[in-house]
Specification:
about 110 residues, mainly beta, binds calcium ion
Length: about 110
């Protein structure tokens, strides 16, 4: 499927439920999970090198995901979040396939 993030909820016994589809970045190439807004609930990062973007889907307490927030990132191939600036907020780290670089988006989330 194109431009779709499929989430297979676990049953806790090694099996999974049928997928729930979410619209995401154009031609996604990788997916990662990190708590980008610091609410203790994992969020999902989807990278698209052809789409030059990273989609952030924030997790909710009910186990679902929000609509995407799309960030422009040239050649985004892989993304994760960590507080690399040590200011208490998560920063977004994006490996780029187009310019041999890691882009750092400093965080403004809690
Ligand atoms: Ca979160």
């Amino acid at each position: 499927m194109t431009d779709t993030l499929e989430v297979y909820a676990g049953n806790g016994d090694g099996t999974f439920q049928d997928p729930v589809d979410h619209t995401t970045s154009v031609l996604p190439v990788s997916v990662n999970s990190a708590d980008v807004n610091g609410d203790g609930i994992p969020d999902v990062l989807v990278s698209s090198d052809n789409g030059n973007s990273v989609s952030v889907h924030t997790g909710t307490s009910g186990g679902s995901l929000s609509e995407l927030t799309e960030l422009s990132a040239d050649g985004a191939y892989e993304a994760t979040a960590a507080d690399v600036t040590s200011d208490g907020t998560k920063d977004l780290l994006v490996a780029s396939s187009s310019d041999d670089a890691v882009d750092v988006f400093t965080g403004s989330c809690s």
